[in-house]
């Protein structure tokens, strides 16, 4: 569901209605997923810049 909200441009209220959930709950899930995604990106970037040891 979170991915559906992100893919659709972030309409949490509409997604909440579709899944019969409270809109604020959906917003909380989306924010948490976006925060986690931002934390993961720098780690991946760091890995790609470190030369491999052979």
Q: Helix and strand succession?
A: HHH
Q: Helices and strands: which structural class?
A: mainly alpha
The end-to-end span amounts to 43 Å
Outline the biggest β-sheet.
none
Q: DSSP helix count?
A: 3
User: Which blocks of ≥5 consecutive residues have pLDDT under 50?
Assistant: none
The fraction of residues assigned to DSSP E strands is: under 5%
Radius of gyration: 16 Å
How would you state the average pLDDT, rounded? Answer: 81
Helix content, binned percent: over 70%
Structure report:
- By secondary structure, this protein is mainly alpha-helical.
- The protein has helices at residues 2-7, 12-19, 23-49.
- The chain starts with a helix and ends in a 5-residue tail after the last helix.
- The model has no long low-confidence stretch (mean pLDDT 81).
What are the salient characteristics of this protein?
76% helix
Question: What is this structure, in a nutshell?
Answer:
The protein has 54 residues and is an all-alpha fold.
Please describe the topology of this protein.
Elements: H1 2-7, H2 12-19, H3 23-49
